[in-house]
Amino acid sequence: xxxxxxxxxxxxAGGVPMRVGAGGVLFRPDDVCKGFVAVRRGVIRxxxxxxxxxxxxxxxxRPGEICLQTFSCLAQxxxxxxxxxxxxxxxxxxxxxxxxxxxxxxxxxxxRLVLTSIxxxxxxxxxxxxxxxxxxLEARLAGALLRLADPANVVRMxxxxxxxxxxxxxEAVSRQLGGFARDGLVSLSxxxxxxxxxxxxxxxxxxxx
Length: 209
Hints:
By secondary structure, this protein is an alpha+beta fold. The chain folds into 2 domains: about 5-135, Jelly Rolls; about 135-205, Winged helix-like DNA-binding domain superfamily/Winged helix DNA-binding domain (Arc Repressor Mutant, subunit A, Orthogonal Bundle), CATH 1.10.10. Helices cover about 45% and strands about 25% of the residues. It has 8 helices and 8 strands; from the N terminus they run αββββαβαααβααββα. A hairpin with a 5-residue loop joins β3 and β4. α6 (about 160-165) crosses α7 (about 170-180). It is elongated. The termini are far apart.
């Protein structure tokens, strides 16, 4: 069983293969949970939106990880409270709720993988709360730019999407990016941001204010 994954175990247990193209919605608020999704390839982005349309990204689900929203829905028999979108094309296996319960009860490897992933996900949540509570907009935005940049130091994302990443308003992010551009930290063009000074952005990201 060395190297076994949640997707492997889900497949062996008769999980239904599922594919979702990039941008496809896996679940929305108030949807009933259809079962446990074990991701083999791709990334699911999970976020919440407020009544005024502002969004915050809670976490991403990659191969070997679980979605806390899904686990909570299965454990408590309630509907989803967030939205899950395929950020990259998804290949996964869907376990019926009753099969998930049986594996969690009877399969120690499956149980260990699930509990380990839950612990890691709670660490992610703590990081989100700590960042929102104790880190200023400038530092949060600098950190997000560094994290999201591709090998060419380009972030291909709208200001609205960046705002969702850091739990802020689009207008505030646009103002801060304008300040970064004036200071020579970034270069702005439609739909993308070039990081012109990674070292200075890194120092900003490490500042709590």
